[in-house]
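Final report, results section. Input specification for complex C-07:
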Amino acid sequence: MLREGKGTEMTETGIQAAIRKRPSSRMARAERRFAWTMLAPSLVVLLVVSTIPLIVLIGMSFYTIELTQAWKNGFAGVSNYVRMLNDGRFLSSLGVTAVYTTATVFLQVAIGLGLALALSGNFPGRNLLRTAILLPMILAPVVVGLSWRTLLLTPRYGLIDFLSEAIGLGSRSWLGDPSWALTSVIVIHTWQWTPFAFLVFTAAIAALPTEPFEAARLDRASPWQTFVHITLPLLRPAIVIVVIFRSMIALRAFAAIFAATGGGPGSATEILNLYAYRTSFTSFSLGYGAALATTLLLVTVAISVVFFRVRQRA
Amino acid sequence: MLLVVVFVWAVPILWVVLTSLKQRTEIFTVPPTLWFRPTFENYVTALETYGIADALVNSAIISVLTVALTLVIAIPAGYAYARHRFAGRRALSFYTLFTQMAPAIGILLPAFFIIGRLRLIDTFPAIILVYLSITVPISIWLMITYFEEIPRELEEAALVDGASRYVVFGRIMLPQALGGVMVTGVLAFIEAWNEFLFASILTGSQTRTVPVAIFAFLTTEETLWGPFTATGVMIMAPVALIALFAQRYIVKGLTIGAVK
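Structure output:
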């Protein structure tokens, strides 16, 4: 590039070339240099804290790295991945991840949309509502998970268990019973993140055009017809985006489940993220943990590619 | 409807606050009691006996430094992506987006491995550097959106007048984007302050943050509800205060990509 610039200067001397070429190419070069200077720190940091670690991760997944049995360590080829295929706990964690992600995203969209529709427009207490509903989203997931586990779901002393008993549904071990534990952590996630869907849908509803609704009213469409044929199609882009955003976050969920159940009882609430964590830091099998984490990375990338296509069409 | 909403989302949080102010004996009454004489005993116990005071200091140091570094790195990058044309711009902005998608556990494992080799586990630089992997990509994206909103005429006029690009950036664009800087800073702070996964492995006795330290109250034998809730309130308090004063900013920041 430098050579090319010099060449131009040498062959095209004279006032014409100076006006036509030099100012613009000099500007372009200056702009390029400026842009790279501004970008350099971020590129260096992302390389060091993100790209290099991910490459190391993939490398680690081809090794046996046992922190407590160092004599086993060494190159392992694809054996970690082969082990995965026959690992019931891995397959179960994939299932739990799928159920957890689908259920939490569906519930957030359904409840968030319902609330946004019900509470659209102006009414007294609107600001109070906004503050109240904003809070869960910015709380530490660890505190949310632990608080639900203790204050709300502890049999007998927890508020929810107390209410459940009071209205005749009985007391149960919400997080200790495998069939209820997954439901409980799904409810916890939904509780914390439905406000996000609510805020996005509230903004989308406020921006809806009014004409189609007036036309529907003139045509005497029922509220349900209006909702299905007008509101939903108009809100489709917002729904698609909430689904994308929330799925990506649900796939990364960790702290709230870790705090509420630790993945248990057994592996009833063990999403892939948690299984990789437990393998690496409870069983100290870093190589196998890396293979699990690499799988999660691939799943995340695959899903986001699909979502990206969907979003471009929406 | 409104009441149901406020009840469902506010009561669990209020319940944590109320419990933190109760005496040990009042916490475990059936039915739960609403009337009691508030006490700060639990806070004192948590801060003094369980080392939460130190953890709060660690959390503050780590969060503040993470925010500062994030802003220094992300603001110029956001400006470059938003305004300047250069070869590889599209590819690089995609790269930034990609780094944001990487699951945290995928960063934690190699980070643990590398930082362990360097004997830097339980040090501030290690955990702060790792936090940049979460905060920098999202912050760059936020800043791109804010810089794009600023009218081009402003900087073009200055450039024509002969101001250097650095001056235009520092004197004209940065003040214009201050709202965006606020949003980005607030969100990065919340992210770092609340973070648990990385901290659970990469911090130790010297650097332990509050979200990790709070587990001290939940042992296999018993759960100390009083000091636990008091600590929970202390974790929630700073972000709740920010939410109160910067509500608009947070709503905008959290939903920015989704609403546009």
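Residues 125 and 131 of chain A are 10 Å apart (CA to CA). Chain A has two domains: 2-60, 80-313. This concludes the modelling results for the funded period.
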